[in-house]
Amino acid sequence: MSATTTSTRTTGLRPIAEYDRPLWQRLLLTRETAIIALFVIVVVAAAVIVPNFGSKITMTYLLLDMFPVLIIALPMTAIIVTGEIDLSVASVVGLSSVLTGVLTQAGVPFGLTIVLAIIAGVLCGAVNGFLVTVVGLPSLAVTIGTLALYRGLAVGLLGTTAVTDFPAFWTDLAKEKIGSTGIPVVVILFIVLLAAFAILLHFTRFGRGVFAIGLSPEAARFSGVDVGRTKLILFVLSGAVAALGGIYYTLRYGSARGDNATGMEMQVIAAVLLGGVSIFGGRGALHGVVAGVLLIGVLGSALRLANVTSDVINIITGVLLIAAVVSSSVLAAIRSRRKSTRKPRLVGTGPGNA
């Protein structure tokens, strides 16, 4: 038995590495704070350098364009925190879009169409979750396969045609603004979803289980967390929210096509990782993810206004994704080395500190 362990047991003290730094450092010196600061700097720089970037209409279209990415990033955050990934979200968006078009074309009431499209997304997520949690396949392989499957179903249902006839009320609502603010009405829906996922992930027993799974599935299982059920729920939520994104995408652009939202999964994953979520699981926070999504949106919007081609924008997004993954590994290595070279502070385990 080591001297540290003996001292800890005899004095009633325990090491807590979290308290090795002052409170202000624990609050401010984080990846989430860094990405928020970078987002603010990029916004200010773009407003000064890029013509028309600071206009109200630019903000409106930026939020309209990024809305599906913003909402899909919420369940994706929880999935990646568990150490899994869902690459099928964009194809679920496309399938939901096609179902919305096909059902509308068949004369189904639009309210029922929305419900059926979301149910289809739930089923897609359940298939992913079943294959990962029950069959035991790796989520990367599963969702690469279902990405192709769901996209194939979407294209097969409509072929190369598109449905463009939707109720005017719904298409107008998807682009409606709140008074004269320029802020789209759909932002209200995003805030509701953000609050729900923030509470679920950061303030509930379920959320604590999500982080525990990411740190160690075995330890989480022995602690009473139902690892399989938790992951299945998260994949179902991902499918449902992706389907909602597909409905919005259809109404926003007034077109249901099998290739809608192709490549969106890369935007979502890049934003989540850029926002401070570890690709290895166990770490992340939604405020950093939201900042990451908006940062990618601002960069894309500013570069398009500066007449930069989409290929260059994709390259920049890819570089940001690689940088996010590499920086996560580097920071983890630095923390590990620092912890190994200093003794943890000892905190009492009396009634007030248990």
TrEMBL record:
InterPro entries: ABC_transp_permease. The chain crosses the membrane at residues 34-53, 59-80, 87-108, 114-137, 149-170, 182-203, 232-251, 263-281, 288-306, 312-334. It is a multi-pass membrane protein. Keywords: Cell inner membrane, Cell membrane, Membrane, Transmembrane, Transmembrane helix, Transport. The keyword Nucleotidyltransferase does not apply. Its main location: membrane. It holds the Pfam family BPD_transp_2. It is found in: Cell membrane. PANTHER family: ABC TRANSPORTER PERMEASE PROTEIN YPHD-RELATED-RELATED, AUTOINDUCER 2 IMPORT SYSTEM PERMEASE PROTEIN LSRD. This is Autoinducer 2 import system permease protein LsrD. It comes from Leucobacter allii.
